[in-house]
Amino acid sequence: MTHTRTLLAATLALTLAACGQQTQAPAPVAATPAPTADEAIAGAYLVGFRENALGAQSLGAQELAAQAQLQAQAITAAGGVLTSQWAEISAAAVRLSPEALRKLEGNPLVEYVEPDLKRVALGRRSGTTDAQGGGGLSAQGLSAQATPVYTASGETTWGDTALKVPTLRASNYTGAGVAVCIGDTGIDGNHPEFGKKLKGFKNFTGEAGRDNAYLLNDVNGHGTHVAGTVFAQYGTGTGASGQQDGMDANGVVGVATGVNLYMARVLGDDGSGSSSGIINGVNWCAAQLKSQGGTEAKVVISLSLGGGRASKTEQRAYTSVYNKGALIIAATGNDGAAVSYPAAYTNVVGVGAIDDAETKADFSNFGTQVDLVGPGVSVLSSVPLGHGTKASASGGGVTFTDVQAADLSAKATFTGTVVAAGGTNNEFCGVGTRNAALSGNIALISRGTCSFEEKVANAVGSGAKAVMIYNNAAGPLGMSLTNSYSVPVVGITQADGQGLLAKLPTSGTVSVTGADYEYFNGTSMATPHVSAAAAVVWAAKPTLTNTGLLNLLTSTAKDLGTAGKDNNFGYGLVNPLKAITGQ
């Protein structure tokens, strides 16, 4: 009690002193550039208060509550609005005017004020953007590559094969008794792959109408895909009409079908969220632990999200959650550059991506913070029912294989005359280029020097009712566009496109329909593989701490690349079977 009174008196004195005097601007220090509008939430900040040497977690409940009250008063006194408070890490999320920001920065209780950063989902539909050689996801896996080491079979995806899931399942290693809590865009709880077995769901974005796992909440689709990799049940599926070509009738199967699955909706409809919302979601995941009043003995937190700027508050939060016993696993990012946050933080496991030939995905970020890698290229998993796309195309009497819909294509079917779009090498380049012969017909265009967006815009502007773009290299062609279109747009292989070109004039059909499964690329896809593998191992070895589990996973991983830990693969491909059995 004496200590509490001393804390109250000292803290209150500092607060009142700060509020009653003219604050002075802090001395200039070297700092990173201010975040852009794409990197931070306007007017939103995270405040970190000074902690003693042992941190806020060393305080008793009464002392912690008293300290939190005084910190909240300091925010209010400066003119700020408190939106979230995390007493255990002496931090809070606030809304501040420029004047309130200046006042709060001058308060001696405050260690720092930093932007509330944006974080984004780190995966999307397999395909290539118009950017070549730059950041972001590219066409790895869509052009010729090394012979696959792992292949799909039945419900078993190539990622399942890489992690030896059939052998694990045969030995009843499914993760039963361990929770996996995913922080993402939500989940379609009605998808048959989940069997209505979701253990918990909560929305942390503030978006209205997104609070029920069994009503529309995953507009983006990313979270449902991630969840399927972890938890898709064996022997379920949605039927042929919702499946991609070549899929098993029962759909796909997840790595850890026996876990208790939770979804913290921390990313919104557009696939982005705030640091503060994600911290709230991660804390909710940790609150499921028995030691925190929940029902779960072990919790793996899976975060297929990130951003390029560090946050002191995030580091405090992830350290606090790790110290409670949870294992946090996060995607390293898709820029082909430095590891993103939160994967780069201490006490967070960073996961990179490989393809089915055990090659590092060209988009996968690299650095010393890469701990493990997992399957992350052309990963097949569930998406919200009907929200995916399935494409088909034919021409000249031939039905094509490896047809992929552009990401913003209309869902429609058109049959008509196929017409070469024209231009150099049939690439149909030049903004505003038009060809009247395309009106009412199917435009056949070659991939080439100008963007997919430019080609499609030119074709639709010419009156085309459907568009086929054929690759200029071996392999299928998936495409990412800038704008949505009212006609079906598909990519076909170079061989099919050139063969069709030689048969013109002829008729053809282009069709894009809804699907319940999709192929995605990203370290976002690698992360749930590793998270699920961690859960399977933890269930088999429940006496391990989170630190012991991580040490086991890294020491038993399949070494790839340079011998030993390296910046591309970390310790290597996670190997749950070896971690459990030693083989």
Set down the secondary structure blueprint.
Blueprint (H helix, E strand, L loop, with lengths): L1 H19 L19 E10 L11 H17 L3 E6 L4 E5 L2 H8 L4 E12 L2 E2 L32 H5 L2 H6 L8 E6 L15 E4 L18 H10 L28 E6 L6 E3 H12 L12 E5 L1 E2 L5 H12 L3 E5 L17 E6 L15 E6 L3 E4 L5 E8 L2 E2 L4 E2 L7 E8 L21 E5 L5 H10 L4 E5 L18 E4 L1 H10 L2 E10 L1 E5 L1 H18 L5 H11 L19 H6 L2
Parallel strand pairs: 6-8, 6-10, 7-8, 10-12, 12-13, 13-14, 19-20, 20-21, 21-22
Antiparallel strand pairs: 1-3, 1-4, 2-3, 4-9, 4-11, 5-24, 15-24, 16-17, 16-23, 18-22, 19-23
Helix pairs in contact: 1-2, 6-11, 7-8
The SS-based structural class is alpha/beta
Q: Please tell me how large the radius of gyration is.
A: 26 Å
Strand order, largest beta sheet = 17-16-23-19-20-21-22-18
Q: Report strand %.
A: 15-25%
How much helix, percentage-wise, in residues? 10-25%
Largest sheet data = 8 strands, mixed
Q: Tell me, what's the shape?
A: globular
Mean pLDDT figure = 91
Number of helices: 13
Low-confidence stretches: 1-31, 131-136, 138-144
Number of beta strands = 24
Distance between the termini: 56 Å
